[in-house]
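Narrative summary of target 7.
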Amino acid sequence: MLSKEKYVTPKSDYYIHTPSALAKELFLYPTVIGNFRYEAGYELYRNNYTSFLCMYIKQGDCEITTGSIKLAAKAGQIVLIDCYKPHSYRSDNGWEAVWFHYDGKLARGYYDAITNKQGNVISLASDYRFKKYLDKLYFSYKNTAPINETVINNWIINIMTELMVSNQLTASIESASEPVEDVIAFISDNLDKELSIEELAKKANLSPFYFSRIFKKETGFTPHDYIITSKIDHAKYLLLNTSLSSKDICYQLGFGNESSFCATFKKKTGKTPREYRTNF
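Modeled conformation, tokenized:
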């Protein structure tokens, strides 16, 4: 739905979630989630909104008040507010934020653990994972994807976990490993395709040269070797656990032809696909 609030731009959107009885009993769950562009002069005060608020500031800045505490938040920071208590947020300049109200039996425990350590305005050493799960949450509603409350609970717990351990790892360590983790998952989901270094580097938002360097550092493989090794490992599984022919496996794993597949398989394992299947 599009917002009709005063001082919120017309294209700002929000989505309501009504949790199931099971979710209320076991999970963390969102009650409303949105992406708002607040205009200069926006101000909101609530005495109670029966939820907790997590707000990621994408652009601009705002001032929040929770209880008697007044704090400033700017782009790149995360705000956590206990909306069961009086609170407000405003800005003279305007800001854009992705936000969600959430609740659940464990919600206060997470809130207290995070804010007791980090405060209500949090700066992450690396916000890569935080934004990844926040985007999953927001776009699942925006794109009207089927809602799986177990998965939604997992995403919110991952968001809370990132806030709890925000400064325990250095940005350099995280920033090197996080894009590689996503690329590895992408490779696993696309073994039937021909994947280029350029495509994988783009997926990681890195240059091909730098991507290849950190990929080798993190995995011990060049990207090309990792792809080939993954395809051959998958081929081994299919040879031993299905009746698929070498030709079928070849095309299922994105090899150009059976001859190329058999040559690559023998180079990696010392056996032809037929020999590998027979010997086991």
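The chain has two domains: 13-164, 170-280.
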